[in-house]
Design a protein that fits this description.
The chain has a 3-stranded antiparallel β-sheet. It is globular. It has one domain. Helix content is 46%, strand content 16%. It is an alpha+beta fold and 105 residues long. Strand 2 (62-67) and strand 3 form a beta hairpin.
């Protein structure tokens, strides 16, 4: 599902580092609109997996961490998600986690 935050998702997905920090003005430049005040003060806006851009970032192996004091968001690779392999769907990840380990491994 494409949202107005898709350019932000695309930018983060293209990064090769394990962490990316973007100021609010940098995020606003990417999305072409001011960030709503709730996104500047409410951690939930960056962590709720029911929000389309958060879900998509998570699907790509990233987590967002709001830094209110410095007016920025730090995006980090989700180590657990990365262990499942890039591009694995939520259903595949759930199935992978629910499968018992083999005797040899």
């Amino acid at each position: 599902m494409a949202t107005k935050y898709q350019p932000l998702v695309d930018y983060i997905a293209a990064q090769t580092e394990d962490a990316v920090t973007l100021s609010f003005p940098e995020i606003e430049a990417l999305v072409g609109a001011p960030l709503p005040e709730t996104m500047q003060v409410d951690t939930w806006q960056w962590t709720n997996r029911e929000v389309p851009y958060v879900w998509r970032l998570g699907d790509l192996g990233w987590r967002a961490h709001l830094d209110r004091r410095n007016r920025r968001v730090v995006f980090t690779r989700d180590a657990e998600r990365q262990a499942f392999g890039k591009g694995m769907t939520h259903a595949e990840a759930r199935r992978y986690r629910s499968e018992p380990l083999s005797a040899g491994g």
